[in-house]
Amino acid sequence: MSINVNEKCVGCALCVKACPFGAITIVDKKAVIGDACTLCGACAQSCKFGAIEIERKKPAGADLSKYKGIWIFAETEEGKLKNAAFELLGKARELAKELNQEVSALLLGKDVKPLALELAKYGANKMYVAEHPLLEEYSTDAYSSIIVGLISKHMPNIVLYPATKVGRDLAPRVAATLDLGLTADCTGLSIKDGLLLQTRPAFGGNVMADILCPNTRPQMATVRPNVFKKPTSDFTRALNPEIIDVPLKLEASAIRTVVRQKIKFEATGAKKIDEVDVIVSGGRGMGCKENFAMLQEIAELFNGAVGASRVSVENQWMPKSHQVGQSGTTVSPKIYFACGISGTIQHLVGMKDSKIIIAINKDPHAPIFNFADYGIVGDVKEILPKLKEELAKAMKK
């Protein structure tokens, strides 16, 4: 890999402003690339004259054994680590144990360094911390340039991202810049013959595909939240953490998007389905939007939330934020009620890791019963009022 400045350079200094690592200076009206360059590519993207050329193609037979370590992107929100960061750390530690490699976490944002200790408690051996006021809000330009630079410099073997809005935007940009493969929305990760075996639903969820990337490094994947268990924290891991500060020199002009205002849309009193212990979900068998009120009443008994199948969302019985499944949210509550849900593979992918599954369906041959711990055969609209009554009685005892 190499970077060159050709005769097209006019010394406009756009690349200087774009470089997040302060590696470029203008000498005699021409850009000069310094030793701090990480080949992140931000300069080439900013140049309007095509004067900066980056060669990333790896020669055939390149020594991939030089790539070591498993990295996770630790996403934050409102100054806190998202639960997906801990889930990724737990799985990364399992993979690292098989490969005899270290686990590192990438932590980007404003005033996020105190969070590094929390990552250490959950299993990160090393934390790369990039702090800057311009990183307070996520932007594809800044975050991807920094991560591409760190990957180019430190050469990790595997990089994992959460399959969240941010992760699904960030990972493809990094992969495209580095000319790498990327497996999206993984529900399983393991090691096979020294390679990362990435498992994800395919063909509408009807099959599970196993994917390997034998020819490029790092191997990269986005992972669905709530698929892997959050590991147990151990404060002794944070007694002597290895925290690496990433020097940055960001310019606002290098970031093409600006967040002016953030507006949250949430139903009054509604709870997020991926943050509760009990979910009461409804499907086609509920019949209409009004019948979802029965699910809400039962959910309230448990301080839980109402979920929905894809059909229920398409029929506008419930908003998209309540959809469970492959094209919705993956959940793993303590108790999952599947009411009037047949159990298509698309839905099962999103809730199969629930600790207890209770299914109610009038079709005794519905696929959901093959996965349920408890099943009730009958009309859900007749059973739910009786179920609510009995549950209310039991909770008063």
CATH architecture of the largest domain: 3-Layer(aba) Sandwich
**Integer average pLDDT:** 89
Q: Termini distance? A: 70 Å
The number of helices is 10
For the secondary structure, the number of strands is 21
CATH class of the largest domain: Alpha Beta
Fill in the CATH topology of the largest domain.
Rossmann fold
Q: Based on Cα principal axes, name the global outline.
A: elongated
According to CATH, the homologous superfamily of the largest domain is: HUPs
The biggest beta sheet is recorded as: 7 strands, parallel
Radius of gyration: 24 Å
Please give the share of residues in helix.
25-40%
Using brief descriptors, characterize the structure shown:
397 residues, alpha/beta, Alpha-Beta Plaits, Rossmann fold, seven-stranded parallel beta sheet, five-stranded parallel beta sheet, 10 helices
